[in-house]
Specification:
Blueprint lengths: L3 E4 L8 E6 L5 E6 L3 E6 L8 E6 L4 E6 L5 E6 L3 E6 L5 E6 L4 E7 L4 E6 L3 E6 L8 E4 L4 E6 L3 E6 L3 E6 H9 L6 E2 L5 E4 L6 E6 L5 E6 L3 E6 L4 H4 L3 E4 L2 E4 L2 E4 L2 E6 L6 E6 L4 E5 L4 E5 L7 E6 L5 E6 L15 E6 L12
Parallel strand pairs: 13-17
Antiparallel strand pairs: 1-31, 2-3, 3-4, 4-5, 6-7, 7-8, 8-9, 10-11, 11-12, 12-13, 14-15, 15-16, 16-18, 19-20, 20-21, 21-22, 23-24, 25-26, 26-27, 27-28, 29-30, 30-31
Length: 346
C-alpha cells in the first residue's frame, strides 16, 4: 500500500489544542481555541468527514474520549472540565478548577478521568460514581502535560519536575466521600527532567515501560519507569526540530509526541518548525521526516490500528509575532505497511 495524505474539512477556525482518536474506530476529536470541539470520521468522503461540531463557552485546551465513542471530555480556559454526549450534544460540568484547565486524560482500566489545571492541581474523577466530587491533588508546580498507562499517571510540570503516580491509590481517593478536599499525595516517583528547559509534552509508551517527554528547546527524552540503576542507565535524550537559517542555529519547541499503537517503540514528534519526524526508540534512530507543514505542529495522534497519523497544525509564537494569523488544519496520513517500522541497529 502506498501512502496518501489529505486534509480534514472543514478545519477549526482558530489554533488547535489537541487531537484524539476514538479507542476502537477511525473517529477523531479535535479541540480548538475557537471554543469548539470537532468530531471527524477520517475514513469518510470529504463531504462527510465532519460528523458534528460542539460549541462551548470558552477556548477548549484539551479533549479525550472515554471508554467508547459516546462521550468526550474537555478541559477549558473557563476552568471547567466537561463531559459531552456526542450523540445529543449535551454537555455537563464535572468539576471546576481555580484557573484554566489545560489537560484531560482517561484511564480505561480504572475508569478514571484526570484533569490538570494551571491552578497547580489535579482533579481525579471516578466516572463510575456520577455526581461524586473529584479527588483534588495538590501538585508541587504548574502542570503542562499529562499521560496515562493502565496503572500510572505521568505529570510534566514547571521547574522541570515530573511526577509519576500509581492510579490505584488515586482511584481509592476518588471513590471516598471526602473527595473534593485538596490533598497532597506522595507520587510513586518524583523526577527532575533530564532536559534543561521547560517540558512541553509527555507521552507514555504503549508497552507501559516508560515515557517520552519533549522540551521547548528542541529536545526529546526517553525514560523508563523502573527505578533500578540498570533501567535508568538506558534513558537518553537527543536534539531535534532545529535548522540553520542564514548561518544561525534556530531551535524550535517540540510541541507534540505520539507513540505508534502497533510498532510500540516507534513515536512521532512535531515541532514549531512545521516538521513531523518518526523515531525508533529502541535503536535511537530517526525513521523519516515528513515534508514541512504550513504552520507549527500543534498535536499528533496515531489511530488504534496504526494505519493513520493525524497531524494538527496551526500558528505558534515561534516567529516572535503576537498575532496568530496563519494556516490551521488537520492532515491525515494513511500509512504504508512499513512506514512506521523501526530500523535495525547500526
Amino acid at each position: 500500500m502506498s501512502s496518501a495524505q489529505y486534509e480534514l474539512s472543514p478545519p477549526p477556525s482558530d489554533v488547535i489544542s489537541a487531537i484524539r482518536f476514538a479507542p476502537n474506530s477511525s473517529r477523531l476529536l479535535v479541540s480548538s481555541w475557537d471554543k469548539n470541539v470537532y468530531l471527524y470520521d477520517v475514513r469518510a468522503p470529504a463531504a462527510e468527514q465532519l460528523v458534528r461540531k460542539y460549541s462551548l463557552s470558552a477556548p477548549v485546551l484539551d479533549v479525550c474520549f472515554g471508554d467508547d465513542e459516546s462521550h468526550a471530555y474537555t478541559a477549558s480556559l473557563d476552568w471547567t472540565v466537561r463531559r459531552i454526549n456526542l450523540e445529543t450534544g449535551e454537555d455537563t460540568v464535572l468539576s471546576t478548577h481555580k484557573a484554566g484547565a489545560n489537560c484531560v486524560a482517561y484511564s480505561a482500566k480504572t475508569d478514571l478521568l484526570v484533569s490538570a489545571s494551571w491552578d497547580g492541581q489535579l482533579h481525579v474523577h471516578a466516572l463510575s460514581k456520577p455526581g461524586q466530587p473529584p479527588a483534588v491533588i495538590q501538585l508541587p508546580a504548574k502542570p503542562f502535560s499529562i499521560s496515562v498507562t493502565s496503572d500510572k499517571l505521568v505529570v510534566g510540570m514547571a521547574n522541570r519536575l515530573v511526577d509519576i503516580y500509581d492510579l490505584k491509590p488515586l482511584e481509592k481517593l476518588a471513590m471516598q466521600h471526602n473527595a473534593g478536599t485538596p490533598q497532597t499525595v506522595e507520587p510513586l516517583q518524583r523526577r527532575e527532567s533530564s532536559m534543561k528547559f521547560m517540558t512541553r509534552a509527555i507521552a507514555c509508551m504503549p508497552s507501559e515501560l516508560g515515557y517520552a517527554s519533549s522540551s521547548i528547546e528542541g529536545r526529546v527524552s526517553v525514560e523508563w519507569f523502573d527505578p533500578s540503576d540498570e533501567a535508568q542507565a538506558k534513558k537518553y535524550a537527543f536534539k531535534c526540530h532545529r535548522e540553520t537559517v542564514d548561518g544561525i542555529d534556530v531551535v524550535y519547541p517540540v510541541n507534540a509526541l505520539a507513540y505508534h499503537s502497533v510498532h510500540k517503540a516507534t513515536f512521532a514528534s512535531g515541532g514549531g518548525d512545521g516538521h513531523v519526524a518518526l523515531w525508533d526508540g529502541a535503536t535511537k534512530r530517526r525513521i523519516r521526516q515528513y515534508q514541512k507543514f504550513p504552520s507549527s505542529i500543534a498535536a499528533l495522534a496515531f489511530s488504534p490500528n496504526g494505519r493513520y497519523l493525524a497531524v494538527a497544525y496551526s500558528p505558534g509564537f515561534e516567529d516572535g509575532k503576537e498575532d496568530m494569523a496563519g494556516p490551521v488544519g488537520v492532515a491525515i496520513r494513511e500509512l504504508s505497511e512499513n512506514e512506521t517500522k523501526g530500523k535495525g541497529a547500526k
